[in-house]
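We modelled the chain as a single entity of 456 amino acids. Its sequence is:
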Amino acid sequence: MTAPRENAAAPVVHIAPVVTMDPLRPRASALAVAGGRVLAVGTVDHVRAAVPAGTPEHPHDGVILPGLIDAHLHMQRGGLKALAYLDAGADADAYAAAMRRTAGDATWPGGEPALGQRVAGLRRVQPLLHALGFTGVVDPAVTIDEMRGYQEAHRLGALTMRTLAMPYLEPGSAPTPDIDAVIAHLAGTGVSTGFGDDMLRIGPIKIYVDGEGLRGQALLHEPWDDSGYRGLRRMADDDLARLVRFCAEHGWGVGAHAVGGAAIEAVTREFAAAGAAVRERRFQLIHAYLEPREADLAAAARCGVVASLQPSIIWHNGRGLRERLGDRAERANPVRSWIDAGAVVAFGSDGPFFAFDPRLLMWQAVTRRIEGSDVPLSLDEAITVDEALAAYTVGAAHASLAEGKRGMLRVGTLADWALWSADPLAVGADALRALRVLRTEVGGRTVFKAGAGDGR
């Protein structure tokens, strides 16, 4: 499979109900695509009038939606795991099962993968993700070697998934032993957030401020238990302030892993001081799911922070958090509160280490159900199917520095869409998990078609 050739396609008309996610025209019955972009969208007659006579028409059984974007998926690691643990010819469901079965296993058994293996992994995993309706991802912690893998795949025309790569430089490692070394490395690259094209672009950098929730490492305002322990602080206040200030002044965005309320407060304080860069470069609070304070949600929303949230983490860890924290866990992953505060919410999965099927995760966000329990978490934080779909489309496009280009189907947007077996907004929450993706296109080129392997 080669990357979409976005300037080569002649006009084509697709006839089917269309959920556009465009507030100015939320529904349509046809769209035309040319040169990798949407040429027209509206009624069948309107679309026909916008293209030359004799333009090919393709009626479809199903509903067309904008391509989904997973705003937090480690795609390259997922590709390596697919090479290591997945049988040839396996489909997306088998891939999801294999990733669940091997969640604790090494990403690449036997050492550091070669560049060619990284590219092979991307070739393997992209069709599996396209089969779930994905046309874009944000890879949230891209190492230097992983960046080389993405660049090589792009050079070879092998990148079919639009990718925002968030660089990760680990403080305390040999190449970057402290924050000063991280800053020096960023200053010496000559590029910054936003550099790239519509297939591969550099995103904000990734940092870690606290640890994992289920391991009791999230930094909370109140102690985890009677010992007084409040969680793990992975970046000191002074280091956080200096790094955020540098990034804001030198063209970089920042995505901060901050699970617990105290970590969220610390990050929000520094982001609020960073000015217009926060909104322009898509500064993110990542995970941000355990006991955030209402004032911090409001402050983050006011300065333009993206809430990068993963229903998958609560699906897998909700029961364990409830057992450990009791009633304090009931509002974990407060998506409703983030939306009501006015934040841009972008949904992702933290795949392949957590479940990444968007049908499951939209259902989870709506129902608040958790694995291993018949009792949902508090429905006070439940959202609608419309809001869940928006978080995977317009919200995730914003997080990807691609608002106005992706996440909706409007004249001039990139022709990234998927044909679903039914309309997720019409079937009801309980039917979401049974929907199927029948076809996926990136830039007007088919990258997945049900019954046709990987879409070649």
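As a brief sanity check on the tokenised model: The radius of gyration is 21 Å. Residues 115-130 form the longest helix (16 residues).
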